[in-house]
Automatic annotation (TrEMBL):
The keyword Coiled coil applies. Residues 204-247 form a coiled coil. This is Binary cytotoxin component. Keywords: Coiled coil. The keyword Coiled coil applies.
């Protein structure tokens, strides 16, 4: 028997499933967390990948378990021992041949399953975040611009309300309703009201200054403006300010959601890279299993020593299958 049947390189003796299993885990986690749910097309792509990868790892485990059971029950070692005791026996050699054929048949199914998994994964469109990312960046810029504009408008309206509040308090202090019948006094009227050195002089000066500041903020005051209209204007501005504040709060919430979605999109390139690594790993696994198949199929078993070598080879394959089962089991 060719020596290569009884010897496999260390790389072939240990299956490397890390990229397959880690890809399955990250897609399942991203899907289950639902951070990209507000982006339906992208989320559905991730969901398809997660469910598919989960199904192929389960199929791989099932196929490895089937192979393990077949190899464990092969009885080739017992056949070799019997041949050593009684010499070459056509019936025992036929059973040995049947045993090897069963292993080859199951290996064919296993290899086909891995190849199909690779083909089907390749057929799934990779998650593409570019369209959502571009839209969200535009939305973020628009929301940030709106936020700046609303804050400026709120500051301006707040200044108007503050100026009105100060003016109204100053006018109340000089008893505007009694002394001026609720009409806004002119600077001359305020000056005439003041008695030098008296308390009313200070109040008149404060009222005059408050009205000047109000005029700077609101523009020129009309001649028929009265105390009641100033109060009504303050109420109207206060209501408008509350509306602006609600608009800003809503805009801020939308902006926070937008930024959150952009943050979630940062995971997509990693998912795409993992997907690529998974495809490479599936192809490598297919080749590794294929090497087992080719070595076993091309093995020559003309005598007991050849069968001993094949039995050792099947034990290596059994260890390989058990390693697959263990890795998949430990991954989830």
């Amino acid at each position: 028997m060719n020596a290569k049947v009884s010897y496999l390189s260390p790389a072939s003796q240990q299956p490397v499933l890390d990229d397959i299993l880690s890809t399955t885990r990250v897609f399942l986690l991203e899907w289950q967390q639902g951070n990209l749910k507000p982006l339906p097309t992208l989320y559905e792509s991730i969901e398809r990948h997660a469910k598919f990868l989960d199904s192929i790892t389960k199929r791989m485990a099932t196929q490895a378990l089937r192979m393990e059971a077949e190899l464990h029950a092969s009885g080739l070692e017992d056949i070799v021992d019997a041949l050593e005791d009684i010499g070459e026996d056509p019936e025992l050699l036929f059973i040995a041949q049947e045993t090897i054929n069963k292993v080859l048949s199951n290996l064919t199914i296993q290899i086909s399953g891995v190849k199909n998994a690779s083909t089907e994964l390749s057929a799934l469109s990779a998650p593409n975040a570019s369209r959502d990312e571009a839209r969200l960046f535009r939305q973020q810029m628009e929301l940030e611009t709106t936020s700046v504009a609303l804050k400026a408008e709120i500051d301006a309206e707040s200044s108007k309300i503050e100026a009105l509040h100060t003016a109204l308090k100053a006018l109340e202090a000089i008893d505007i309703e009694v002394k001026f019948d609720g009409l806004i006094p002119t600077p001359e009227q305020l000056a005439a009201l003041a008695v030098p050195g008296g308390q009313i002089a200070l109040l008149s000066e404060a009222a005059a200054q408050a009205l000047k500041n109000l005029e700077k903020t609101l523009g020129q005051l009309s001649a028929d403006l009265n105390y009641s209209r100033l109060q009504a204007q303050r109420r109207q501005l206060t209501l408008g300010l509350r509306t602006l504040q609600r608009d800003l709060a809503a805009n801020s919430r939308t902006l926070a959601t937008c930024r959150q979605q952009l943050k979630a999109l940062e995971n997509v390139p990693r998912l795409v890279a993992q997907r690529k690594a998974c495809l490479i790993a599936l192809n490598a696994l297919s080749m590794a299993l294929g090497s087992f198949y080719n070595l076993l199929k091309n093995a020559k078993y003309k005598g007991i020593e050849d069968l001993r070598a094949i039995d050792a080879f099947l034990k290596t394959l059994l260890a390989y299958q058990r390693s697959m089962i263990k890795q998949i089991s430990n991954a989830f």
